[in-house]
Amino acid sequence: MSVWESVDTLRAYVYAAGHASVLRRRRKWFAPLGSAHLVLWWVPAGHRPTLDEARARLDQLDAAGSTAEAFTLRVAFDPPPRPPG
User: Fold this and answer.
1) Closest Cα to residue 6, out of 42, 33, 55?
2) How many other C-beta atoms are found inside a 10 Å radius of the C-beta of residue 61?
3) pLDDT for the residue numbered 68
4) H/E/C letters for each residue in the chain?
5) For the chain, what are the domain ranges?
6) How many CB atoms lie under 10 A from the CB of residue 81?
C-alpha cells in the first residue's frame, strides 16, 4: 500500500517508461485474480490508511464499481473539498 499526493502523480509514475515496461509483462508473473486488486481513495492529510480500510475499499469497488469513495486510475475522482480553516 502506498499514499500519493495526487492521482496525476501516481499516474505519471505508473506509466513512466521503466515501470510501464514491467507492467506490460505482469501476466508472466501473476495469475488473474478475478476481482479488484487495486483501489484508490482520498485520505485526509496525515492519515495513515490501514489494511482493513484498503480491504473495505476493494470490496466497495467490487460491489459498486468506481465511486468517489473507491475508484481506479481509469475512472478517478477529484479530491473532496478541504474544510475551511
Assistant:
1) 42
2) 23
3) 96
4) CCCCCCHHHHHHHHCCHHHHHHHHCHHHHCCCCCCCCCCECCCCCCCCCCHHHHHHHHHHHHHHCCECCEECCCCCCCCCCCCCC
5) 1-85
6) 6
Residue type, 2: S
Contact assessment for residue 66 and residue 75, using Cβ atoms and an 8 Å cutoff:
yes
| pLDDT tens digits along 36-62 | 788 999 999 899 999 999 999 999 999
Tell me the pLDDT tens digit for each residue of 23-35: 777 778 777 777 7
Contact assessment for residue 80 and residue 68, using Cβ atoms and an 8 Å cutoff? yes
What are the cell numbers at 12? 505519471
